[in-house]
Design goal:
15% of the residues lie in helices and 35% in strands. The protein is built from one helix and seven strands. The protein has one helix spanning 16-32; strands spanning 34-39, 42-47, 53-61, 66-74, 90-92, 96-99, 108-109. The longest helix has 17 residues, at 16-32. The N and C termini lie far apart (54 Å).
């Protein structure tokens, strides 16, 4: 018997620190190999693959004072490990950054 598909969509206005905490929890779960997402009475449990496809889109509109970042992650649970070097990506704040390949999630100062 095939398993039933599960999905959750979530949208909320929150403080920046709360959004960052959700993203940190997601990153920790990805590193540990299992992501559990719960909202209300619904939940989705995801076993992560060895490889992940990351799509990131950042937009800034200074005239309107609006900015956005969209993140999409996809994987296949039983996929073979890809031994390629990831393309260059740098995510930075005022004095620290996380570069692609930093598997421990630690930040570096520059």
């Amino acid at each position: 018997m095939a398993e039933e598909k599960q999905s959750i969509e979530f949208s909320s206005e929150m403080e920046t620190a709360a959004a960052a905490a959700h993203l940190e929890a997601l990153a920790k779960s990805l590193r540990e190999g299992r992501v559990l997402i719960e909202s209300g009475d619904r939940s989705v449990s995801l076993e992560t693959g060895r490889n992940v496809s990351l799509e990131l889109e950042a937009k800034a509109n200074p005239e309107k004072g609006k900015s956005s970042v969209e993140i999409k992650l996809e994987w296949v649970a039983e996929e073979e490990l890809v031994e390629e070097a990831p393309p260059s990506l740098l995510i930075a704040s005022g004095g620290s950054f996380v570069a692609a390949g930093d598997s421990d999630g630690e930040t570096s100062s520059y």
